[in-house]
Amino acid sequence: RIELAVNEVLKLMPENPMAALAEALQRVSINSSSEDSKPQAPQVDVAALEAEIKSQGDKIRSMKDAVKANPSAFAKEEIDAEVAKLKELKGKMPANSSDKEKGDKKEKGKKEKDDKASKHLIPVEPVMGTRDFYPEDMRARNWLFGHFKEVARRFAFQEYDAPVLEHEELYKRKAGEEITQQMYNFVDKSGYAVTLRPEMTPTLARMILGRTTESGETKMILPVKWFSLPQCWRFETTQRGRKREHYQWNMDIVGVKSITAEVELLAAITTFFTRVGITAKDVGIKVNSRKVMASILKSQGISDQQFAPVCVVVDKLDKIGPEEVTKELVQLGVSEKTAGTIIKTMSARSVEELSTIAEGADQEGLEELKELFAQAEAYGYGDFMQFDASVVRGLAYYTGIVFECFDRSGELRAICGGGRYDRLLSLYGSKQEVPCVGFGFGDCVIMELLQMKKLLPDFPQLTDFVVAPFSKDMLPNALKVAAKLREAGATVDMQVELKKKVGQTFDYANRVGAQYVALVAPDEWNKNMVRVKDLRMEDKDANQKDIPLDKLHEWRTIFGST
Amino acid sequence: RIELAVNEVLKLMPENPMAALAEALQRVSINSSSEDSKPQAPQVDVAALEAEIKSQGDKIRSMKDAVKANPSAFAKEEIDAEVAKLKELKGKMPANSSDKEKGDKKEKGKKEKDDKASKHLIPVEPVMGTRDFYPEDMRARNWLFGHFKEVARRFAFQEYDAPVLEHEELYKRKAGEEITQQMYNFVDKSGYAVTLRPEMTPTLARMILGRTTESGETKMILPVKWFSLPQCWRFETTQRGRKREHYQWNMDIVGVKSITAEVELLAAITTFFTRVGITAKDVGIKVNSRKVMASILKSQGISDQQFAPVCVVVDKLDKIGPEEVTKELVQLGVSEKTAGTIIKTMSARSVEELSTIAEGADQEGLEELKELFAQAEAYGYGDFMQFDASVVRGLAYYTGIVFECFDRSGELRAICGGGRYDRLLSLYGSKQEVPCVGFGFGDCVIMELLQMKKLLPDFPQLTDFVVAPFSKDMLPNALKVAAKLREAGATVDMQVELKKKVGQTFDYANRVGAQYVALVAPDEWNKNMVRVKDLRMEDKDANQKDIPLDKLHEWRTIFGST
């Protein structure tokens, strides 16, 4: 029946819509007289569309106002339908037209085309919602990633990686999640549904399954302890200013049922914090157990099937408040009374409190929670930890302990989060259940926190040597000097164009953070020497030395000994 | 006129074809009864399509055979048209169905669906044409990238990075290139044309322009010396086995007219070779000057406009032979006689030979070439270098020196390549011409070469310690030991699940490449000691020590001194 319906759809569409479009536009391009008119994305009447979007937005706002006055004025479905319409309209908006100024510039550029074909500036910003890393940004990123990697090394986790492009199916399989609507997905030229990965866990699961036999035995040494630093993507049209990509430090342990796996991951997170100067006064880690919550909710009549979607809703408690959460829970088939009990249960702030508030809690799960806190204490990071029954995490696949790290000042979003997901591999087709636990730790919020706490060091450009030929005929000799110093491990910025004045060389050397300038000039060269000046040494008498060519490789000790 | 034509095209198409398709398929999915049937890429009759592809392939083969027997049997255009048809057919093929076994499995899975909904295995391979990096692959990649980065550091190049997703326009602007047809491009959900970057140079140019004032002055210290290790993507439907992604070491110098910029880049390449054990006997670097070639071709009546496309064609000389190149040159409006002269000129294997074969060569360009070879000699890598007039590189944007590194055994494709592209920034809208030179060095061919030459080291998993609790009550103490050792910089694999026998711990430790096992057991613990065994020490009497807890941080010296 599905295939029939698909065929119906396909009859209405070009067989390969993108190819047809590209081809059609190609033809247009060929027909045009100018060589510079390149095929473009479909043009839309931006002004008309903007007006439509505005009017649709007004409509929704008035509906919502009406509902506030009288809850039965409109059904949720009615409003949802209008919101969907709004989204569709926004989807038609060309990505760049949101920035009005840019749009105008482009328009202006077009008018000038007759004069200066092809001379208009290409977009100099990266694709919307993404970041370039200029060298100074890259030094900061390398510093942060260096800490991530060093912590992972000390915990004996092995690095892995996978293509940023993933099978869309991995994410569709984990149904009921917001993430599938926010994916940077597309159908490739061969008709295959792919996406820029929104998160790394499904990829990890895929790779583990790739090394698992038919009968469900992994071919790897268990436990698998892996880490990665993937760039993850999402597509959001609505919220301006939110990024569409971030990097995320991932650490996962596969094959361990014991809570000590969680303890290790939390130890890695707190080890990282300690390395960069963040203390338990700055951040805390909220911990909960979905297993325990599920048992309590089950005693309230929430089925296993309902549990994951209930968690996804309850996760929004902070954002949308108890009233909205109750509404959404009712939509999931939860009675209003039970919704109230759930929200009350979520207020527990200690394992003991939870036991008294809620009946029917899974004893094994409670025991696990207590053990987790005891082991964290033993490892030495107990002061970071607190129980919080409201933390359930937004992802449907968690099955046990979940945790979330937060900034105690309350200014920032969650710093990192994770938990146990023992059933993801079964959902993906594994014949055996494979216990898994992991976390994701983004690169953006932590950098904001470090900045806020003034814990970010400076990242200046640093160079050991600038090597400069005194004149054109000295250039080959300067190249020899550069080669020798590099062979000896120095960072050497070779001056590739002659400067008119020596002063320019020193200016340049100061700007690129060089410690030494090696000036290759005829007088010294004839004595097999190179004049080297230490730019950071105050003592004007000692800061310059003539070094024999065959001693250049000892540059560290020569200058270290002065 | 173009806008009118575009509107014509759009009338024939859904306004947003992908959105329309997705929406339509969503509806189909809602109509279906099973919760597990997720929207899929359009279904096609794979068997019928395969038959069609086969028959079309046969047709082309017979046409080609006919041409071999009688060159005028079919025109090139006729065959090309049939090849295009074949490509189109192949494009309709679902990405995964090429692998017959998989297809069958999937089919089988579908039939079993009624029994075990959603239990069929997800795709465990990465997206077609891409690579996963399991830890052992990642160690090899990190080793290679470590050399790339270390060389770049010694040359004082700064690292930069940018999103893998780029504006399609960057590549469309550089018209006349094969790359635009092979792009992994798509229109995003907001209607914006993006692509997974096929190469890094346009991104570099974009970033430089992003730091350039209206009047064309850069805000950065010149020269800019940057490097990056981007993953680059292409989309090819036809050639099975060819990868759709690779990593590419890029080094670029911006703002330098002098040939010494090229000399520095070639020095970096050869420094890398030397580090990994590749000599001038293994590889060579072919160098040519497009400036010189342009001057010679100009004297043959080839216009500046024709020059870049002529280079793109001539670059295929090795692949398609002189006859085909002549045909394609004639198609570009070059006379058959001139085509012959061009091909003859390409045979020059020294600067001197070129001067005698071809008249009208640009003297400044010839001088530059001679200087380049002299400076390479001075730096110390002259033996890698050779002139080769047939090297023009396939990219349209090169304007001066071009080079290509090849394996002397002739078994592998080009190892790296690059050159000068002084006009790319102007093409992108810069008001001033900005001299640029750079190279790209892929990660695949070099690894093949290193393997071929047996120069790849082993990359075993290595760990300092496995820390194991003797019993459950020792677990908190074992965690303390792990924390102490990690604080002291050790790589510590904490045993997160109790083993029944100590032997299992040692087995595990051996498999993960651990040097020491720290066994946390009651007898020693009561004396504030931990028993540590050195697994790599032969001497059975000396390979075990009880170390006081407060001395654990001295682990390196304790064992170093035995």
From TrEMBL, chains A, B:
<keyword id="KW-0547">Nucleotide-binding</keyword>
<dbReference type="InterPro" id="IPR041715">
    <property type="entry name" value="HisRS-like_core"/>
</dbReference>
<keyword id="KW-0030">Aminoacyl-tRNA synthetase</keyword>
<keyword id="KW-0067">ATP-binding</keyword>
<dbReference type="GO" id="GO:0005524">
    <property type="term" value="F:ATP binding"/>
</dbReference>
<dbReference type="Pfam" id="PF13393">
    <property type="entry name" value="tRNA-synt_His"/>
</dbReference>
<feature type="domain" description="WHEP-TRS">
    <location>
        <begin position="45"/>
        <end position="107"/>
    </location>
</feature>
<dbReference type="InterPro" id="IPR036621">
    <property type="entry name" value="Anticodon-bd_dom_sf"/>
</dbReference>
<feature type="domain" description="Aminoacyl-transfer RNA synthetases class-II family profile">
    <location>
        <begin position="129"/>
        <end position="457"/>
    </location>
</feature>
<keyword id="KW-0436">Ligase</keyword>
<protein>
    <recommendedName>
        <fullName>histidine--tRNA ligase</fullName>
        <ecNumber>6.1.1.21</ecNumber>
    </recommendedName>
</protein>
<dbReference type="GO" id="GO:0006427">
    <property type="term" value="P:histidyl-tRNA aminoacylation"/>
</dbReference>
<dbReference type="InterPro" id="IPR004154">
    <property type="entry name" value="Anticodon-bd"/>
</dbReference>
<feature type="region of interest" description="Disordered">
    <location>
        <begin position="87"/>
        <end position="118"/>
    </location>
</feature>
<dbReference type="InterPro" id="IPR015807">
    <property type="entry name" value="His-tRNA-ligase"/>
</dbReference>
<dbReference type="InterPro" id="IPR000738">
    <property type="entry name" value="WHEP-TRS_dom"/>
</dbReference>
<dbReference type="GO" id="GO:0004821">
    <property type="term" value="F:histidine-tRNA ligase activity"/>
</dbReference>
<comment type="similarity">
    <text>Belongs to the class-II aminoacyl-tRNA synthetase family.</text>
</comment>
<dbReference type="InterPro" id="IPR006195">
    <property type="entry name" value="aa-tRNA-synth_II"/>
</dbReference>
<dbReference type="GO" id="GO:0005737">
    <property type="term" value="C:cytoplasm"/>
</dbReference>
<dbReference type="InterPro" id="IPR045864">
    <property type="entry name" value="aa-tRNA-synth_II/BPL/LPL"/>
</dbReference>
<dbReference type="Pfam" id="PF03129">
    <property type="entry name" value="HGTP_anticodon"/>
</dbReference>
<dbReference type="InterPro" id="IPR004516">
    <property type="entry name" value="HisRS/HisZ"/>
</dbReference>
<feature type="compositionally biased region" description="Basic and acidic residues">
    <location>
        <begin position="98"/>
        <end position="118"/>
    </location>
</feature>
<keyword id="KW-0648">Protein biosynthesis</keyword>
